[in-house]
Structure formats: structure tokens, C-alpha cells
Amino acid sequence: MPNELNCFNCMGSHLTAPKTKISGLLGFARNFVPEEPESNLTGRERRGKAWLLKMTKAESLFVTKADKGGATLIMDYQTVVECIERDLQNETNFKKSEFSVDEMMTEVRGKVVEKTLDLLERNNISEKDKKLITGLNENNNLVQSPEFRPTIPYTYPLFKVHKLNEDQLHEKKIPPTRLVHATREGPLYRLEKWTKPYLTDVSRRFCGDEFLLDTPDLLEKIKELNQVEDFEKYGDKLQLFTLDVILIALYPSIKIEFALESLKEALRKGELDPKLNTALYEFTELILNNAFIGFKGSAYSGKIGIPTGNCISRQVADNTLHHLIKLTVTNSTGYTDSVSISNRKFGCSF
């Protein structure tokens, strides 16, 4: 807008706009605050919303979204707590730490600082990287800023409503759940955020054009494939198959050891500096092996798989599945005739 207003003065004095009007217009543009949109809720709806907020804050109700389908669930708060307790007490999936939450926060924070300073000394990362990850300045003193004060990571359940039939829904049966590890602002969070962009680039290069947004995207790609004019030239080299994770969810199915092996292969085939590759591998190893959540003063860590809800879990899973498919589906002569993959073959994981 300032450039347009200056044009008035270049076109002759008879077109010059008064300074007071220009000043007023510029002031309006710089200080414009849009009005709050008028609520379209009815009085009854507003009262219902206020009641819902009140009950949520009083820990009487729990409002969440379903695992799939976009449904909103309003549940008894105590029922949700019992679901979390039941899952955390499953010794197959979770381990209760001998340390308190506060002790775990200190320990994990110390590991992040120790690894970061080690990689800095080896010239794998920069002084700026160190500060971004740990909040330590040039003298290794902690910057007094809120974003460098981690909070306790927590967990919450996603309810698999899609697993219930209509009768079970009417009977208000509690759906199966999966726990999400909310690591946001936890002691590993800044390290995860620093690592994530690099791993995103690595996974996209490693996996190529294999990424699919959702089922409609897959159907669209199949449609495009059917429209290829020289489709026949592919012959028996073109195979379409599905990879299903049976019985348990994807992230708990991925063994950390195999995930790190897959990451190493992805980094080897990437284009990043070798020193940065080392930092990414060691940081990822630290993140996956030290993720935990706090619940009622106790700390819990997962015994199987990689954390659900972690900033880098998606990228780790992408690399792992791509590496798994390459190891299983391809050989020195090309594609195999048929593929059958189940959790049993990979020891409940891969």
C-alpha cells in the first residue's frame, strides 16, 4: 500500500492526496484488528458449551476424538483414567520405572545435554545447534527462557470406535484403545524438533514416490496406472500387493533395533554430510531408547515398538517399512512372484 500511495505524488499536484488522509489510511492498515465474528450458536448451545467446559475442568467428563472417522467422544473421566491404568499395567507393553517422574526428567535431560556436547566436540553439530537443542549458551550456562524448561510428557488414549458394531455402540461398550505418548515440551522434545526436518528429507529421498496420503490417493494412483498407454511393457515386473500389520498397531510392531538399521541404510543412501548423518543416527537412537511418559507421579516407558506421538516416529516408520519391503520383496533378479508378510515372520515386530 505505501508504494501505491507514493504514486499519487508522481502524477502531479492536482492528484496529490492530503497527508492527513494518507496518515490515517496507513495507521488503519498498520493497526487494523478484525472484529470478532458473531457467534452463530443458540442460547441453549452456548449454555451447553459452558457446561461442557465446566465438567471437563472439574475432571468429570473427558472429550476426545475417535482413533478414526473423526467422531467426537464425550466420556466419563474416571473411565478414561481406568483405561490408561489398564494399558500401563500391561507388563508386556510397558515398564514402570524405579525412578520418579522428576528423577526421569533430570536423567533424560542430562543424557540429551551429554550427547549434544559430545557431538559438538566431535564437530558433528554446531554451537548454534547446541543452543537450539539444549538452551546452553557459549559458556554452557542454561538460557533463562520458558521454552528451555521441559514439562512432563503424558499419555492419552485414542478410542477405536470403528472396531465396534452398532449394537455395541448402543450398549455403550468401551472401545479398544491405543495410548499416544504426548512428548510435546518434554525433555526430548527440542531434540526431536531439531532432528525431524532432516529425517523428513532423508525418508522422502529414501522412499521415493511411495508416499500415499490416504485410501483415495491410492485408488487415484491405481487409476493412473491403468491409464498408462504402454502398460504391457511392464509385464510381470509390475506387482501390486498390500502389507498389513496384523493384531497390533504399526508403531508397537517396529523393533527399535530394526528401525535404527533401516535409518542407517537410509542415511547411507542419502546426500547429507557424513558428520550430520552420525548426529542424526545417534540422536534418533537416544530419542527412541529414552522416551517415557508420566502418570500419577510414576514414569513409564514402552517395552515394545517406537513411541506413538513422537515427532520423528512417522519418519522412522516410513524408513523401516521401505527397508522391510526392499529386504522382503526384492532380490538380485527383481521382484518375487508373491509376497506374504505377517507379524509372526518378524517375531511380532520388524
Overview of the structural elements:
With 350 residues, the protein is mostly helical. The chain has one domain (58-346). The chain has 13 helices and 9 strands. The protein has helices at 2-10, 19-31, 43-57, 77-88, 101-121, 127-134, 166-170, 189-207, 215-226, 250-253, 256-268, 274-290, 313-329; strands spanning 61-65, 72-76, 94-100, 154-159, 177-182, 293-295, 298-302, 330-331, 334-335. The strands form 4 sheets. A 3-stranded antiparallel β-sheet has the order 3-7-6. The protein has a two-stranded antiparallel ribbon with strand order 1-2. Strands 4-5 form a two-stranded antiparallel sheet. Helix 5 (101-121) runs antiparallel to helix 12 (274-290). It is globular and about 60 Å long. Mean pLDDT is 81; it is low at 1-18 and 331-350.
Oligomer: single chain
Average pLDDT score:
81
Strand fraction: 5-15%
Shape, per Cα inertia axes: globular
How far is the first residue's CA from the last residue's CA? Answer: 58 Å
SSE run: HHHEEHEHHEHEHHHHHEEHEE
Task: Spell out the blueprint of helices and strands.
Elements: H1 2-10, H2 19-31, H3 43-57, E1 61-65, E2 72-76, H4 77-88, E3 94-100, H5 101-121, H6 127-134, E4 154-159, H7 166-170, E5 177-182, H8 189-207, H9 215-226, H10 250-253, H11 256-268, H12 274-290, E6 293-295, E7 298-302, H13 313-329, E8 330-331, E9 334-335
Antiparallel strand pairs: 1-2, 3-7, 4-5, 6-7, 8-9
Helix pairs in contact: 5-6, 5-12, 6-8, 8-12, 8-13, 11-12, 11-13
Compact summary:
The protein is mainly alpha-helical.
Based on the model shown, name its key terms:
single chain; 350 residues; mainly alpha; three-stranded antiparallel beta sheet; two-stranded antiparallel sheet; 13 helices; 9 strands; 47% helix; 12% strand; disordered N terminus; disordered C terminus
